[in-house]
Amino acid sequence: MRGRDWTPDGGMGGEMEEPLFRPYAVTGGRAEPRYHLAMETLVSTVTFMSDDYSMLEPEQEAIMTLCRSVRSVAEISALLRVPLGVARVLIADMADEGLVRLHTPQLDHGQPDHNLLERVLSGLRRL
Hints:
Low-confidence stretches: 1-6, 8-12
Structural class: alpha+beta
């Protein structure tokens, strides 16, 4: 399986070989986040006084950079080319550490917000 490197601007870099680690190694062996995290949940970076991400894992740094603009869990998974379950675990851990904010859609009597659906559709078209 061949993939591409993720670049901080959201673009894709050159071809690379399959990573030498398995996705579960990044999540500490966990396949599920500590709490439910829907794929349409929006994620944004918490504002820091500096953008020094040197203490973060590479995956956390990539998520922090991507989420300077609000993105869904599904978008983050797709842009980083990691399985959705891995993205959910990483994002939930980062939310617990206060690195990102989660914006869950408010459902009105079981009906999704029309504006949310438009944003998701727009994001999908951009992919």
